[in-house]
Design a protein that fits this description.
Layout lengths: L1 H25 L5 H8 L3 H29 L1 H20 L4 H29 L3 H32 L4 H4 L1 H15 L13 H20 L7 H24 L13 H31 L4 H7 L2 H20 L1 H20 L8 H28 L5 H34 L4 H6 L7 H9 L5 H44 L5
Helix pairs in contact: 1-5, 1-6, 1-8, 3-4, 3-5, 3-9, 3-16, 4-5, 4-8, 5-6, 5-16, 6-11, 6-12, 6-13, 6-15, 9-10, 9-16, 11-14, 11-15, 11-16, 11-19, 13-14, 13-15, 14-15, 14-19, 16-19, 18-19
Length: 501
């Protein structure tokens, strides 16, 4: 009985650590206008304030995960919590943009230590496959729900406090979590002699950062597409070199043969698509709610609250369902459910809250949460205990790439559709060329005009973006439906294939 109590007591501690990292990935999105007014960063500095966290996180995950396999995941998690708390305090009181960029970089170091450690601790603690599926389901609900709840938390804090509160809120949580983590988490090392190939990890780190950087550059106005492509190709080459190095190693840090399993490959693809959707949808919806419907940050956060709430509730259930009905059925069903949610909201006229909108948001959140759970459960059940950290890190790199692609794909599609759908009278088209670049710039330009031109520009921009919102939602539905179909086909072939022997 004591063992059972201790085992389940670990879950809240791990979840709190994960929640800090997940919320910080998105909490800043809604704070950007307030932060910009307070610190006055240049356009380049503002991009680095936002991008440095996911960029470094993606590059550091593999190194941190395999280091946890060597020195112990508890030790790594405790160190990550301490770094995260100190970096949060530094960010909260940043006197200028440069300090905030440095603080966000250290947040990424702390977060990269915590992310793979949390999932690895669950893999090593829960031996029973059904219990592990439930535990990983709860882990996934915290990961997806935390990211989606970031704007809600940010909006609530900004309604009453200084912008630094979005970082300072982490400090008391870390101070509470540290002693409980030290007391409750298992302290065993997985492998005293586990290899840690530093040159190879530096190669992988540089490669992953290069790929993620190139993806993010596609959404930045004025960025050179040729430079982004060159950096992306160089990064991909370094990742390929790292994989070749691992394949030739006598004792590799990660057994690459695991990823030849179609179920693992589909799980990683499903996890990446889920993150593309949740991050991209949040980017799209936050602009629709604040710029088109003119809601405050708090009102916008509350309007989208059904998405993270549904994710929180669906993810633990999906773990049990995957164990009972199989990964293929749960992943495909979850992706199809999210696709149906996007179709529902795409067909709605923008405006007041409606039952159909709430149901659509619930379907999107529940589907994404369940898909992430099914993917995580499949990947971690395949991982040998001594490689849990490395395998967890690979999955979380897929999440980070998905997040970057979500911003890149949704952002690019939003820009293209908005520019094509915006209709202005010829004289105003010439007078306010900035209006065609984005809805934010259009509304700023409208503020500088006299009536009735100001109303004409603002109305045209809001109308164009509403149509953009609907069009991008349909594209998201199509992407989810195609991924669901691919999962059914690929995994059906695997089941139908003759077994050796």
């Amino acid at each position: 009985m004591t063992r059972s109590v201790n085992r389940w007591a670990i879950l809240p501690v791990v979840s709190v650590a994960l929640l800090l990292v997940a919320i910080d990935a998105t909490v800043l999105h809604i704070a950007v206008p307030t932060l910009s007014r307070a610190l006055g960063p240049s356009a380049s500095q503002l991009l680095w304030i936002i991008d440095i966290y996911p960029l470094l996180m993606a590059g550091l995950l593999l190194a941190a995960g395999t280091l946890g396999d060597r020195i112990g995941h508890k030790r790594l998690l405790l160190l990550g919590l301490a770094v995260f708390g100190l970096a949060s305090a530094a960010c909260a009181f940043a006197p200028g943009p440069e300090w905030l960029i440095a603080g966000r970089a250290f947040l990424a170091f702390g977060g990269a230590m915590m992310m793979p450690a949390t999932l690895s601790i669950l893999r090593l603690t829960f031996d029973d496959p059904r219990e592990r599926a439930i535990a990983i389901g709860i882990w996934s609900s915290v990961a997806s729900g935390g990211a989606a709840f970031g704007p809600v938390v940010g909006g609530a804090l900004l309604e009453h406090f200084h912008w630094g509160a979005v970082f300072l809120i982490n400090v008391p949580i870390v101070l509470i979590a540290l002693p409980f983590a030290a007391w409750l988490l298992p302290g065993r090392r997985v492998s005293e002699q586990h290899p840690w190939d530093l040159p190879g990890l530096l190669m992988a780190m540089a490669g992953i950062i290069g790929v993620v950087y190139a993806v993010k550059q596609t959404t930045h106005a004025g960025a050179s597409p040729w430079l982004a492509a060159a950096i992306g190709l160089a990064g991909a080459g370094l990742v390929a070199a790292f994989l070749r190095r691992q394949a030739r190693a006598a004792v590799p840090m990660i057994d690459l043969s695991l990823f030849r399993n179609p179920a693992i490959a589909v799980a990683l693809a499903g996890a990446m698509v889920a993150m593309i959707i949740i991050v991209g949808f949040e980017l799209l919806l936050s602009q629709q709610l604040q710029l088109v419907l003119d809601l405050s940050p708090l009102q916008a956060g509350l309007r989208l609250a059904p998405v993270p709430l549904a994710s929180f509730l669906a993810s633990p259930l999906a773990g049990g369902l995957a164990h009972r009905f199989g990964f293929r059925a749960v992943l495909a069903g979850a992706l199809a459910l999210s696709a149906a949610g996007f179709v529902a909201i795409a067909l709605l006229p923008a405006g007041e809250v409606s039952a159909v909108e709430i149901i659509g948001f619930i379907a999107i959140g529940a589907g994404v949460g369940a898909a992430m759970t099914a993917a995580s459960t499949t990947v971690m059940n395949s991982a040998p205990a001594h490689q849990a950290g490395g395998v967890a890190a690979v999955e979380e790199v897929a999440y980070e790439l998905g997040g970057g692609l979500g911003v890149a794909l949704f952002g690019s599609l939003m820009a293209v559709l908005y520019q094509r759908l915006l209709v202005l009278p010829p004289l105003l088209e010439t007078a306010v060329p900035a209006a065609r670049r984005s809805i934010g710039e259009a509304l700023l330009a409208a503020d500088a005009l006299a009536a009735p031109d100001a109303g004409t520009v603002a109305t045209a921009a809001r109308t164009a973006f509403t149509s953009t919102y609907q069009g991008v939602s349909l594209v998201a539905a199509a992407l989810l439906a195609m991924t669901a179909l691919a999962a059914l086909v690929v995994l059906a072939r695997r089941r139908a294939a003759p077994q050796p022997g």
